[in-house]
Design goal:
Number of domains of chain A: 1
Shape of chain A: globular
Distance between the termini of chain A: 46 Å
Structural class of chain A: alpha+beta
Strand content of chain A: 25-35%
CATH architecture of chain A: 2-Layer Sandwich
Radius of gyration of chain A: 16 Å
GO molecular function (chains A, B): thiamine binding
Protein name (chains A, B): Thiamine-binding protein
Helix content of chain A: 25-40%
Largest sheet of chain A: 8 strands, antiparallel
Largest interface: A-B, 52 and 52 residues
Number of helices of chain A: 5
CATH class of chain A: Alpha Beta
Oligomer: homodimer
Number of strands of chain A: 8
Chain lengths: ~200, ~200
């Protein structure tokens, strides 16, 4: 069941939803989509969520860019979703695995800074020692440019949106090096009126 | 590490966020909270999410009631979160385990119907045979009052909000009977302008 997990680059994906807490939610979502280059990922959207699949670097590049372009509007926006890699049976869209590694949305994000709060949970699948992998990862994330705190069922990260996605990406990447099938759920929120920080 | 998983009733919890896609998001959230009896669960809220913990029946009762009371406003609302049970180390709030089993929000929901779409993923932790538990569950959900379809990394449910939460609850419950630590991520959406159904 883990025969898809070999090779130098593995198919990753993310099912996510962007939530602008605004009457202009359609414009904010479409506006963010217009700013983001999604050509390096397979993409499908319905009324509940969007799924992107391809190389891990591009999956994180696209989700980060969509959130940041939506957050720069100043409206209260959030994004929830689940990253996945090594899911048995996830074999379509392999053509996107030939894309070059350079993330295409980074340049446009260089000047954009926005504070956010994020809660995420890592799930290394099929392993009796999964809690060790989780604890190890929570510990590692302390060394990144984000404030790390513990919550029930989740780890909280606070800081700049790009630094948060960097920490998510690194955590996910380092666990998937050891565990074939890993999922990671997250909720990130910016411009919340409840955040006094 | 699974010493907390014994007993007739186990501590369950959910980290979730309610997302009203409306300028009135604060009023919709506070309005829903006012309608919902949360006295049978431990509850904590910050700017990113809300965590409720207690008996499984009350955790599902409260999340379902909050979503349905927000959805009845007719505004486009969504909720994302992760249910968890049997998490090693989750030991606080045990006092809430003495609450009677009767869900306190059901009567108020009796007359409320609202169509929604939901995607969820079940993660039985620490087991090499986790995929079987997932496939079995996806199959079971076909027999409930919801339309079931497959998606990448998730199962989609369509139908009445109460029937969807019922299916989520039953899926989660039946897997946790076999597996000590189970998590389940979900996103449910109602009144979306993209849903032509």
């Amino acid at each position: 069941m883990t025969s898809n997990s070999c090779g130098t680059s593995r198919l990753a994906g993310c099912q996510f939803t962007l939530f602008p807490m605004s009457d202009k939610f359609v414009d904010i979502i479409l506006g963010a989509l217009e700013e983001v280059d999604t050509s390096k990922v397979w993409k499908d959207t319905d009324d509940v969520s969007t799924c992107v699949r391809g190389k891990m670097v591009h999956v994180f590049d696209v989700t980060k860019a969509l959130f940041l372009h939506a957050a720069k509007t100043g409206e209260h926006v959030a994004m929830s979703g689940t990253f996945s890699i090594g899911c048995p049976g996830d074999t379509e869209a392999d053509s996107y695995m030939d894309e070059a590694d350079a993330p295409v949305n980074e340049t446009k994000l260089n000047e954009l800074y926005r504070k956010a709060g994020c809660k995420f949970s890592l799930y290394p699948m099929g392993r009796a020692d999964y809690m060790e992998a989780i604890y190890e990862q929570i510990d590692l994330s302390k060394h990144r440019n984000v404030e790390v705190s513990a919550d029930h069922y989740a780890t909280r990260l606070d800081g700049d949106v790009k630094a948060i996605f960097e920490a998510l990406h690194q955590s996910f990447d380092s666990v998937q090096e050891k565990v074939s099938h890993v999922t990671m759920s997250f909720t990130i929120s910016a411009n919340s009126p409840s955040n006094k920080a």
